[in-house]
Amino acid sequence: MDAAFTAEQDEIRRTLRDLLTAHRPGPAGGTPVAPDGYDTALWHRLSRELGLPGLALPEEYGGGGRGPAELAVALEETGRALLPSPLLATAVLAAPLILALGTDEQRTALLPSLAAGELTAALAVPGGSLSTALGLTGDLTGGAWAGGGRAGGVQARPAGGDGGWRLYGEAAQVLDGHSAGLLLVAAHTGGFPRSRTLLFLVRTDGPQPPAGLVRTRQASLDVTRPLARIELRDTEAELLGADDAVDALAALTATGRTAAVALAAEAAGAAASALERTVDYVGERERSGRAVGSFQAVKLRLADLYVRVRSARSAAYYAAWDPESGGLALAQALEALRVTTAEAVQLHGGIGFTWEDEARLYFNRAASDELLLGPVHRLRDHAAQRAGLFGQEQAGGPAGRGPAGQVAV
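User: That's the sequence. What structure does it adopt?
Assistant: C-alpha cells below.
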C-alpha cells in the first residue's frame, strides 16, 4: 500500500479547500442555511467546476471515474467546512445503488443527471437506522431492520399489468429527503412468508409531487444535516432493477462499506477543523496574563486530541484501500469527532456553549452523526462479528465461550 496522496488527489483537496474557504459556506462561515438545507448556487458550482457529485461514477455516465480514495478526499474537505450539501445523500448513498442495481435504461436516464448535479437523490429506509440498513451495525438478512413484512416499514405491491408498483408506509430520518428530486425507497414485498426487501424509485422533481407522497422536514440537532420524514400512501413507484430477483441487500451492504469510508473521512475532516480552531482560540485567549494554550495541562489535552484525529484520518484512508475495514474506520472517526468537539467546547470556555459559536456547531455534528450512523460500540461489535474475532459458536455457550462460560483461547 502506498500511503502517499497522488498529485491528482492533492489537487482535488487544494481546489476544493480554496473554493470552500473563499465561499465560507454554511453556519461555520456565518452564512444562514438555505430553506432547502444547502446553497444551490454553490452546489451547482461544485458540480460544474469540480464534478463533485459524479467524482466516483464511471465516465460513460458523465462521471469522473475516480475511486473511494478521491471521494474520501472530497468528503474530508466538506467535513472540515461543515458544508451543507446533498453530496452525501446523492453521490455516496444513492448513485452507487443505481449503478449496482439499475437497468441500462435507468442508469442512462438517472446517472448523468446525478453526476452533473442537476438531480439530487436520497435513500429512504424504514426503521430510522441508516447504519443498520447499510449493514454497518446489523445483519440485513430477514428484513427485521425494515419491518420484516409485518406492520411498520414500507410495503410494496404490484400496481397491475404495466409493471408498476405502489408503496405504502413511512420512513423517518431521511437525509435530504425533503428536497431530493429522486427517492430510493427500501420496501418489502411478497407478503410475510416470502417477504424480501427491494429498492424503488420515486421521482419528485416533476411539476407536481407524486400522489400520496408527503415529505416533512424535521428539526435536527445539526442544521447542516437536514432530515425528513417520508410518508407514502399508495404512491406510484418504479422497481430499481430489471426484476424482483435483484439482490438489493447485497447492494446495500456493498454501498455501506464504501459509504463508511467516505463518512469516516468526513468525520475526520470535521474533527481536524474543530481541533485547529481550538488551537487558534487557546493561543489568543488569556488567563492570568498568559495564553491558555501555554498551560501544560492544556497542551497535553490538545496533544491527545491530535493523536486521535490523525489516527482516525489514517484509518479512513486505509479503509479506502481496504473497504472491509470501513466500519471500524467509521467508528474510530466518529469517536474522535465526539471527543475532540467535546474538548473544543470546554476549551472555548463560556462562548463554546452558545448555539452560535463554531465549536458548538461541530459538537452538534458529532452528536447527530453518531445518532444517524452509529453508535460507535455497535459499529465495532458488528465489524468484529463479521471478522470472526470472537470465534465460532460452541456447544453449551455463546460464541467464544466454553460450556462453563470461560472465554475460549
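The domain at 250-387 is CATH 1.20.140.10 (Butyryl-CoA Dehydrogenase, subunit A; domain 3).
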